Every structure is written in structure tokens, then in C-alpha cells.
Amino acid sequence: MASADEPVDNGEPQVVYKGPGYARIPQDGEVKVETAGKKTKKRGKADTLKVLLPIRPKGNKDRSDMDTSGLISTMLFSFFTSIYWKAHRKGINQDTLMPLMSDREAAAVNCDRLERLWQEEISKHGVEEASYKKAVLRFIRTRFIMSSLAIVVSSTCGFLLTAYLLFQAITYLESPDVSVGYCLILSFSIFVSTVVRVLGGNFSNYLNARSAVRLRSAVMMQVYRKVTRLRSTSTVSVGEMVNICVNDIQRMHDAIIYGPLLFSFPIFILFIVAGVVIVIGFVPTIVGSATLIMFFCIQTCLAKINVKLRQKCVVFTDRRTRLMNEVLNCIKLIKMYSWEESFAKNLANIRAHERKYLTRAGILQSFTMGLSVTVGPAIVLTSVITYSLMGNVVTAARAFTLLQLFGSLTGTLYVLPIALKPISESIVALNRIKPILLMDETSHELDPPSDPGNAVEVVDASFSWDAPPTEENGGKSKGQSTKYKLVNGDGDEEKKDQEKGVKEEQEKDAAASDGLLGNEGETQGPTVTLKNINLVVPRSHLVGICGSVGSGKSSLLNTLLDQLNLLDGRIAAKGSFAYAAQQAWITNASVRDNILFGEPYDEQRYKQAIFSCCLERDLEIMSDGDRTEIGERGVNVSGGQKQRISLARAYYSDRDIYLLDDPLSAVDAHVGKHIFTHCIHGVLRGKTVLFVTHQLQYLRDCDYVVLMRDGAISEQGTHDHLIAANGEYARLIDTFHGKAEDEDDDVNDAIPEIKHDDENMNKEESSQDKISEQKKGEEEETEEEEATEVVKLIGDEDQGHGTVAYATYKSFVWYTGSRFWAFFVPLLMFLTMMSSVFTNIWLSIWIQSSTIWRNQTQVPTSIPVASTSSPWLPTSAPFMNNSSDDIIINSTDAADEYDDDYAFSTPSGDQSPTGAGGMSIAFFMAIYAGFFFFTYICLIVSSFVFIITVLRATTRIHDGLLRKIMRCPMSFFDTTPLGRILNRFSKDMDEVDLLMPMNLQRCLFFLSCVLIIQIFFVFVFPLYLVVLVIVAAIAIFLYMMFRKGYCEIKRMDNTTRSKVVSHISATMQGLTTIKAYGQGKRFTTKFEELLDTNSLIMELFFMAPRWTAARMDLLSSCLLLILCALILVYKANLFSAAIAAMALQQAISISGGLLQEVILSCTQTESSFLSVERMLEYIEQSPSEAEPHIKETAPPDEWPQDGDLKLQKLEMKYRPNLPLVLKGITCHIRPKEKIGIVGRTGSGKSTLGVSLFRIVENVSGKIILDDVDVSTIGLHDLRSKLSIIPQDPVLFAGTVRFNLDPLANHTDDELWSALEKTYVKQTISALDNQLEAPVIENGENFSVGERQLMCMARALLRNSKVLLMDEATAAIDTETDSLIQQTIREAFKDCTMLIIAHRLNTILDCDKIMLMDSGEIAEFDKPEVLQADPNSLFSGMLTAAQHNKGSLDDE
């Protein structure tokens, strides 16, 4: 790692190698591993400067070729040659590129340096005044300056020196002298000057690429590290983080790529102006410079406008990305509620606003490019007219030299807006990143208790999710001001409500790029979440924590994790923590990896964790046991399995203090009893355990009980003590004791004697407890075959192979709306460039005509030696001449305001002469002006039409992709990481919106220009065609060799970026768990590895075109050498010296970078189309569900009227090669019946819901709802008539109103009525904006119980005839549960209800009980009938329940 006192200016990291390329830099506390006994070498400035050696001998093979190449190899990017050759012959993969990985781009090292500079900036100027921009500039300044100097040197040689040599060549063409030697010297000199420009420019690009990747890695790593230390991530959503890391930091990368050009621009301008002064004098130069300054000011104003447009656009980009991320996370509920069209419409509306600003910015960008193209002729026009009016002569040599000088300036001005765009956008990005770096962090370091015998001490403490506005946190608390306070005071609610309120207010400001740009929140003090907390927990005690929904139970645990701000009082704890969240967080890894969670494997402890958390049976049925891969967000395991894995992780971690947040709510009662007996009250005895629960039957076995109410501790003490006190706790136990005990029992306890094929039954398990169970079936497809290989659930992303297919371009043309636009737009651009080139051709014709007239009037064609005034020229070829013997020839664009009577008069006062054929100079001027204005008009029109056409296509692709994703079946989402899908809507969309139009436009312009000029060259000198064919063949070979490898690298860039995005998303979702276990360093190390890999690919992707461009430029320089030699040697055979002079000038312009621009723009366009290809791949190849509407079989609008449900021989499997999950289910559920569905985990009860909603299509059988076969109607027609209250509550970012009624079909009175019936009205009415109060991402500003109640209110508003409740009250306390059951009986009395339950009290009053076992109905009858049969399974279950109740009473 870099030392703390490393020189700031150099920034070269110290390195550790242990193989080709980069060896990961050890983190703090890690031991640096030496390489096979080799000592680690420190390399600094001396090693860095070795790159300036022309040739370096082969050094250490363990080092990257980029670090050991000499100057010539570096400037030619020779380390790419073997890669391209291999790609052309065999193809390449990621391993092929790894040897090029350099430790100098290591994210950790560069991040450390940037962080040090940032801290120095803060220490100097304070938090408020510190400038993150200055820290970034200090980070890159040395290499930035070196790159700028390289550009200045190469540009000086490539443009100024070439302009001088061009003048000499044209002067020689006009003179009668003949000297072959002089011709060859001139030609070779021009060749050398262009080669110097090529090599110098490449060296600058090399430095820029490496500097940009270092900055990108450093900033992204710094932001990620900061996020892992945040106290809360509610002020930064996953979508915002993805947008910042994928798009904003990319702008900073691009700014470093183009920044040196902008930095060196004033110096280059100064040199150009000096050259122009030498050519035409001081006064005309002043006029031309004034024109340049005017254009530059216009461009600056346009750039500022573009920044504002970009700021407004990024607001909608953030919103679109954030909403898309939320849709993907909640896609299952969206499908079940048939909200796809609604959310797709919302996304499309956001996209429409985004497109509006994209269109404006794109047109503005095109107009800026138009100015860049026309500024050269405009400057020449004003300069030469001024020069002519002063009585001076403009010869062909002077005219084309001036055109070359201003042409080089035009090329720079053309790139200027391209450079200004990312630089201006990077300023916006820096302003977005700084607030994140200043957010409040958690240290997770608590003071030790005053009594060593205590594990936790909380004394007179009050806490808030809001950071108090103190000087210490300064700007950190700005984004966290209180917005509202919940009645119940639950920390989960208050925290997120406050922060979401701020975020929503900020997002409404379209002038800001997003919620991170400023603080629009209120400034009142923090809301107290927990107040006056006094709690002492002795070591090795089990403390049970209970209370109603929103009372602050989860917040109490979070205080120990330093998630809340301590307002007053004291909190102390000693020991390490383990944390099992109420909503378990599972990573995309194997079951074993999720349990080990970075800890070393201990077989005995691991087996104990499996047993105590009741996972043995689950592992038996999984296809690969504990090596079975769990999908992203745990999609292929049930809620209960996730909770048990999370609990096993906690036990295995072997910590001192265990924080268990209602871990038994999602498991079956018998499983819960097993876990409590063998884990919480078993193997964890001797540990300090804080156990939050709504299942009161376990509290009697706790050493201590805490009752929470309204953010405070209402009662605390032992169970017996609290019962004896006869307070609120005693009343709670007395009132709900029986129900609590009933809840502890399940059908699982009543059917142990039934012996079935456990394998078949267990194959359903993980999918039955959760509505997303189809994924589980996919996991188990190889079980019966006893597969020996681990089945990979999440497959590697198909990155494609080779170049972009022709079908991709064809599809893009189709999305533009018509083939007409595909031909009309390039035609417009071709006409534009033809007009631009013909302007110079006409200038040559004009000069030639004047020369003929001068010869006819016997005006001397040579300029007297005595009038030489230029220090550039020998005495035989003066550069400036004011002799009255010369005719004044205007060589620039004509302006209407200049009159022929004086603008073209001879010094003697005679009228302007006529040209060849009697045509006046006014005629030439009129034609010249016509071409000039025609070029300008064509450019504006073509740019406008182009942007409109391209953005029409990209928006249609976006909308098509969105519609396709919305219609994909759940199996697609279960096997595809969220980051992979989101990358299509973020980075790929950004690529086709912003980069592709610019690249494609440049490609069309430059291709047209090169094609026209080459045709002109062949016309001027036919022999040139032979050389052109040979060089073109070599160029085509190089391009074909390069093209395949370049596309492969681009695809690798896309796939490695997806992994980075997925890791960011996963980290933010599980940040609390990661910090609780102290795993931040491990996740940071993983992120570092992913980022370093992506940085290498991205660095190579930028450098890759330079390999070809360098060789193409060298080829064009060879063409220039041959063309110059042919023209100069055979000048006597040329029909026009002026035309030949124009050909030389155009050839120099091509070798001066035009051909490189063609290669770069073509390759960058193709790489942009790879993003189109990736999006089209999802559109065309992703699977689809059934149609949402089928007109022929659409049911009546009032269907279903009764809710009569019939299942006839229903069979279902999750995939064709898996066993049946439902096996011939037949039953009849009459209208308004309440059916309680019970059964062991894996018995098939939740699969009934999956089948009913057609999440998975049935194999055979029918589901008849009110005489309609649901398999024959559209999915929307079916799902919109059903309702579900899922086990995992889902809320969307937005408002309370939107979450209750996303389709806006209900009045306020109806909303409040639903809230009242679900006992959440009091909470909502206490919010500042009530129904309009913000809900943050995932609804995390409400407790889990409150989210569940709001989901119930949402279902109540739908007023469906069929309702499925899947453990809907698992996260609700027994008191609220009792009230909810009353609501269910009253509010849903007209519904047919299917109630999947583990708690017996929720189903005892049902009309019938359906007991499922192994995919079959074991019992189905009224509860009293089943109870009356002593042999029934249900009767046995009730007997077990009564037995447990009696045992409790005995206690």
C-alpha cells in the first residue's frame, strides 16, 4: 500500500506482485504475501520515468507490459498486437487480458491517496468550504500536465510545422524551378511532422487512459467505502448509487480523457495566432481572433446551457433508474396485482421527460459541432477580407497555408464541445458525490459497561434516526432533517420517514441533479425515536423484547449497532455482535457461504448450526445440499428458510452478543419450537441474547423480559415478576395467552406419523412457503438424478462473441420508424461534407482562374526577392509581399456586406478583372458564399433530424425492453441478477442515449469527408489510385484484425460492470447485517477485486482503438509522403497548381487526424451498438408469459360475481424435468368460504396460490372461477380480479396514497376507511402530509408490521372476490393480530378467502380446513368435523396444542 507520506504530485503507488499483472493490495491488518521469496520492490518516480526511454529491454515477466514498455512501444500500443492477433484467430476471454493488469491502477491504493488528499482539504478549509474538486485535481495534476505538454508538442509539430512545410511545397509548385532532391526533402519533412503528431497524440492518450482509470477506481472505491460506513443508507437509494457509480463517475473518467486537450487549448491557440500573424500580419489576425473569441463565447454559453439541461435530465434519469430498481425488486407483487401496465406507464412517462431534455441537449450539441465546423471558414473570411482591404496580395500558397492553420484550429474547436460536455457534467457529478462523503458515519464502537458483569448498559438514553444539528457533524446532517414523527415512535418508521421526506423534497427541484445536490428539508430538531431508555443486560442472559407494532423493538436493537444517533444519556456494550434481521438478508452464494459469512469452516460448529436451526431436512432436499446456490435476494428459498439461514449464520459466527429481530415469525410453529429449544435457548445459552418476538409463549423461558410501547420501555423484569405485578404485560399474557400458545402449534405437529417419500415432498419445500417458489423447483431439477456437479442457479452472462451482428443494425433502423430515415440522414450528412469539401475545391478553381487571367495580362507570376518579409522563407520564396504588381485574390468565404467595387480592386484603382472565360470575381465569390451557407444549413438540418431520429429509436428500444421485462415470467427474474437487468436500463441506456448519437454522427461526417477527399485525390492524380488500393488493403486487414478483439473487450466491459453494479446493490440492501458482523472489509475487498477487473477491461477498451488509429495514421502519413512526392516531382504534368495545392492541404488534413477520427468514431459507434445488441437480446430472446388480454375469451367486467372456485385434477410442476408439486388436487370452494390451508413446509400449500395466479402454468387440470377456466383468459384479466397479502410486505417509493391506491381509483374517504379497518390510521394521520407523506425505497421508514398492515389495507381497497393471505400476520403482535382477525371476518366477509397459516388462531374460525401433504389434500372439511374425528390429522394437531397450553399453565 502507498505510504502515508507518499509525494502527492507523483501518486505512483507502491506495489506487491505475485504473478502476471496485478497482485491485490492487502487491506489493513492483512499480511503482505511475498512472491516466491522475492522481496517487494518500491517503485516511484524513477521507475515511472523509465517509460520515456525509447526502447526498454524485457524486464520482469511478472509485471504488466504496460509498465515495462519503452516509449516507442507505448506510443504504438504494441502490447495490444498479440491480443488482436489471438482474437482474430481463436478469440479471447478475460484471462487473456489479465497479464496486462497493473498494480498502478489498483483501486485500494489510489483510493487511499485520494482519501488522504480529501482529508487534507477538509483539515485546511473545514467541512463546509472543502472542495472535493480541488482534491481530485491534486490527485491527477502531474500526469494531467504531462499529457497537456505532450499535446502541445505534438500539435505544434503536426500543425504549425506542417503549415510551414505546406507553404514551401505550394510555393515550389507555383515556381518554375525543378529539383527532385528538394521535392523529396519537403515530402519527407511533411511525413516526419505528421508522424511526430501521431506519436505525441498517442502518448497523451496513453497517459489520459491510465490517469482516468485511476481516478475512476479511486472515486468509486471511496464512495463504496463511505457507503459501508454510513449510519443509514436511506438518503441514498440503490438506484442513485448505481447512477452515480455507473454514469456520474464515468463522466469524471471522460473528463480526464479530454481535459488535457482543453487545458492545452489556450497554448495551442497562441501558437496558431502567432503563425497567422506571420502569414497575414497583425491587424487581420486581430480581426480573425475576434471572430474566434466570439465563436468561443457562443460555445461557452451553449456549454453552460447544456450543463443546466443535463442537470434537469439527470433528475429524471435517477428517478427512472430508481423506479426500475424498485420494480425489479418487487416484480412478483407487481405481477400478482397486475400492475405491470401501470408501472410501465410511469416509467415511460419519466422516460418521456428524460427524452425531452436529451433531445434539447443533443440538438444543442449538434449545433455546437456545427459552429466548430464553420468557425474555420468564418475566421478565414474575416481575416483575409481585412488583409485584402489593406492592399495585400493573397496567393495560393498564402491562402492554403492560412486554411491549414485555421483548419487545425477548426479541428480543435470541433473536439472542444466534446471535451466540454464531460467536464461540465463531471462538475455536476462531483457536487453529487461530496454530500455522500460528508454523510454521518457509524463507528460501531461503544464504551465498555461500568460493571464488567454486564454485556449492555443503557442509561437515561434517548435516540433518533436523525443526526442532531451539531457543529461536529456539520453538513452531514443536512440531508437528514426531521420531516414527521410517527405516533408509535418506532425507529424503523421514523428513520425512513424523515429521510425519505428530505429526499422527495429534493427530487422535486429540477434544477438539482438529484437529492444529493442540496438540502431542501426542514431544519427542526431531530425526532426522538426512543426516549428515556434504561436497560441493563447481564452477560449470558436471554432477554425477550415484546411490544405492539411500531413500539420501537427493532430500533432498540439498532441502537447497539450504532444505527441511531444518541441524543442524551449513555449506552455501553462490550463484545462482538451477531445480528439476525427481521427480514433476512441473503447473498447470491451457496447455503454454506451464507452461513459461514467469511468465517473459517469448523465442521462441528457448522453441523450444530444446521441442526439447531432446523436446516438438515432442507439441505437433504436441495439439489446440491449446502453447496446449492441461493439466488439474488434469496429468491429461490422460502421466507422461513431465509430466516433460518440467517439465524444459522448468527450462531456460527460465535459472537458475544446476539441480536435476534423476530427470527421465528416466518417459520412453522414446530420449526420455531425446535429453533427456540435447540438454538436460542440451547446452544446460545451462555451468550447474551436480545430476542425480539411477537410469540409470547417463548417469553416465559427468557431470563428477562422488556415490554416496549411508544418508543419507551413500559415494563421490564422477569416473566414471573411482571405477571405478579399485574401490569400491562400481565394483561397481555392473560388476554392472549391461549392464542399465543395456539400459534405455537401447526399442522406439522399433527402429521409426523404419516410417512411419505420425503424426497418428493421435500422437493417442494422452499417454494411452498413463499409465493416465489417456482425458483426452488428450478434449483432441484437434478436431485433425483443425484447430480455430482453443483447446479449453478445464476448462470454467467452471455457476453456474445465477435462483432456486432448485421441484424442489430437492421433492428435499430426498424426502431427509427422507417428505412427512409436510415438513408435520408446519412445522405444529408454526405451532402453537408460534400458542400464543405467543395468549398475548398471552389477556392482552388477561383485561384486558378485568377492565375490564368494574370498570365493572360502578363502579370509576373513570381514575387520579387526584395519584397520577402517572412523569416520562414528563403530569399527565393517570400511569404508576404505588398507589391503593387500582384493582383489581390480573395481566397475565403465571401460575405454579402462586402462590395466588389472596392473589395477586389487593384492597387491602381482599376475595376476587378474577370476570370477565365470572362467570369467576374463576384461570380466566384457568390458561388463560394453559396456553398458556405449551404454547408451551414445542411449541417443544422442534418443534426436536428439525426438527433430526433436516433432518440426516437432509443426511446422505442427502451419502451420495448421495458414491456418485455414486465412480461417475463418469474423464472427469468429468479435466475437473472438484478444488477444484470438494471445495467441494461442504466449504463446501456446511457450509452445509447448520450454516446451513440455523438459517435454515430462523427462517424457519418468523417467517413463522408474521407471518401470525398480520396475521390478528389484520384481525380487530381490518377496514379495515386494504385497506392491507395494497396494501402487500403493493409488498412482493411488491420481493421478486421482489430474489430473482433475490440468488440470482445467491449462485451467484457459490459459484463464486468454488471458484476460491480450487482455487488453495490447487494451491499446497500444488506448493509446493516454486513456492519453488524464486521464484514465490511471482506465486502470491500470483493468490490475491489471486481472493480480492478472492470477497470482493466475499461482501460484496455479505451486504449484499444488507439492501436489501430496509430497504424492508420502512419499509413495515411505514408500516403501523404507518396502523394506529396508525386505531386511535387511531376508538377509539370498537373493541369492546375491551385488544385494540386488544395490536394496537398486536404491530404495533410487527413493525416493530421481525420483518418484517426474515422477509425475512432467507427469503432466507438460499433461499441455503442453493443449496448443496443444487449438490449435487443433481452427484447427478442427473453421468455414471455401468456398474453395479458385475450379478446376472444375475456370474461365480463363484473366477473367474478360470486367467487366460486373449483380445482379439478390440478397438477403442476415448476419445470418440465421436475417432479409434480401438486398431484391431482380436486376440491370445490364455495362463494364466501374462508379456507384455512395448513401443512408442513413443502406440502404444497403456497403452490396453490402460485397456480391460482398463474405464476407458473399448470401441467394439467383446471381452475374454474365462476364457471371460467382461468387458463383460457388473459393474465391481466385474471390477476386484476384477485388479491394477495404476501408474507413479505412490499411498499414502493412514493407516497402513502400511491402505495394504497397506485391506480388512483379510490377517494380519500375510502383510503382512510381502509387504514382504519387495518389499525394503521393513527400512524398515518400523525405524519406531516398524511396520505401524501413519503414512503422511501422498500418502505423502510415503516416497521415491518406497519408495512404488513398497509398491504392489508391495499388488498381491502381492491375489493376482490378472491383473496389469498400467505402468513399475512406473521410480523404483527398478537394484540394487533386479534384485531386484524376481526377485520378479516368483517371486511372480507363477501370474499372467498384462502388463508395460508402457521398460527392456529388465524384459521380456527374458518369455514373449512385444507390440510396439505406432499402435494395432495390429506384432509378437507369443517373444523368441527375434523375435531370430532379422533383419527384426523387436524384433531391430533389440536390435541398437541392443548398439551402445550397445559404445560405453559403449569409453569
TrEMBL record:
It is found in: Endomembrane system. Residues 505-735, 1205-1439 form the ABC transporter domain. Residues 145-425, 823-1156 form the ABC transmembrane type-1 domain. It is a multi-pass membrane protein. The keyword Hydrolase does not apply. One of its GO terms (cellular component) is endomembrane system. SMART domains: AAA. Pfam families: ABC_membrane, ABC_tran. InterPro entries: AAA+_ATPase, ABC1_TM_dom, ABC1_TM_sf, ABC_transporter-like_ATP-bd, ABC_transporter-like_CS, ABC_transporter_C-like, P-loop_NTPase. Residues 1-23, 465-525, 752-786 are annotated as: Disordered. Its main location: membrane. Residues 493-511, 752-778 have a biased composition (Basic and acidic residues). The chain crosses the membrane at residues 68-85, 144-167, 179-200, 256-280, 286-303, 363-390, 396-416, 820-847, 921-954, 999-1017, 1023-1042, 1112-1130. Keywords: ATP-binding, Membrane, Nucleotide-binding, Repeat, Transmembrane, Transmembrane helix, Transport. Belongs to the ABC transporter superfamily. ABCC family. Conjugate transporter (TC 3.A.1.208) subfamily. GO terms for molecular function: ABC-type transporter activity; ATP binding; ATP hydrolysis activity. This is Multidrug resistance-associated protein 5-like.
